[in-house]
Amino acid sequence: MQTVLTVERRKFFSISSRAALAGLSASVLSAFRPVKGRKTVMSLVRPDRLRVGARVALIAPASPVTEEKITKALGNLAMLGYAVQEGKFLRVHNGHLAGTDAQRLEDLHWAFSDPLIDAVWCVRGGYGCTRLLPMIDYALIRKNPKPFIGFSDVTALHHAFLQRSGLSTYHGPVAGGDFPEATLRHFNAIVSEVSAAYTVPLIKSGEDGTGEVFQSFVITPGKAQGALTGGNLALLAAMTGTPFQPVFKDKLVFMEDIDESPYRIDRMLTQLLQGTDLREAAGIALGVFAGCSPKPGMLSMSLQDTLRDRLGALGIPVVYGFPFGHVAHQMTFPMGVLGEMDSTAGTLTIFNT
């Protein structure tokens, strides 16, 4: 548009007025320019442990929730010994969103501001969390630190809270998901119990939840240590170039995805490599990319070859096959807390102090 004005309407502007307009345009554009690669300097805030009897706010910050999913979430939290208070707009549907942005934001702010609420748990992921990021009161979050739990689309909120509030949130199971024994053990060890270190081994082999058989593998051997950060690959890629872009330098990065073709995995990793400081990470712990093998007849690299191609030349330890994300047995990661990955031992240790 500006080019058209310059060429076709040049005679209506004097040299001085064009200079003034250019200066104004530059200042306006700078206000919307994303802040990329900003390193977090805010001190890390760890919430209190989540104890039996705690009152948990159940919210839906992303996609709409069915009554069956809400019933399942209520049963899960009751089984864990928590009292539940539903968000005001938990049952609202707004097309592909669980309520309007304003409604979902209101539930989020309520959950953190209400002194009777001890923790905030997302009932599901889906899509919609990134829409809320510019509107969140991050000072409110920092003043009222509470355990905040979820994964998948909730990845966006984890990163925004860590960057803007310093809050260490929990990348873990959604309230409406399944809670097999291993998931419960991982969750309690990180969120409820006091443990100096908690170690989880690689899943050597098995079914990924979509019926596909997988095996763990090492892309680049070694030991890596750093603050834990990461989440769902699609969300990490979607946040690239925004003011909430993830920061990976010197971090131990965990990531996973589900039901994506290898070329899409390639595209998202390429975006992170070109648009962020992922190359400067301490190491990368990959989950089980469920349903991400090429379909029969597709002209494609294998998932393993795709991951090796994109991540194998970074010169940092990279290992595939840890249990988190869209798999049956999920470990829970406290964002910003020190972790260590050892390819030889096939372990990931969280120093949960």
What's the gist of this structure?
The chain is of the alpha/beta class.
Largest β-sheet summary: 8 strands, mixed
Question: Residue-averaged pLDDT, rounded?
Answer: 89
- Compute the CA-based radius of gyration: 22 Å
Count, helices? 11
Strand neighbour order, sheet with most strands: 6-16-15-10-11-12-13-9
Query: What's the order of the H and E elements?
Result: HHEHEHEHHEHEHEEEEEHEHEHEEEE
Number of strands: 16
Share of helix, binned: 25-40%
Residue windows where pLDDT falls under 50 for at least 5 positions: 1-40
| N- to C-terminal distance | 55 Å
Shape: globular
SS strand fraction: 15-25%
Class from secondary-structure proportions: alpha/beta
Q: Tags for this entry?
A:
19% strand, alpha/beta, 353 residues, globular, 11 helices
Can you walk me through this structure?
With 353 residues, the chain is of the alpha/beta class. It has eleven helices and 16 strands. An eight-stranded mixed β-sheet has the order 6-16-15-10-11-12-13-9, sandwiched between helices. A six-stranded mixed β-sheet has the order 2-1-3-4-5-14, sandwiched between helices. A hairpin with a 5-residue loop joins strand 7 and strand 8 (213-215). It is globular, with a radius of gyration of 22 Å. The N and C termini lie far apart (55 Å). 44% of the residues are buried.
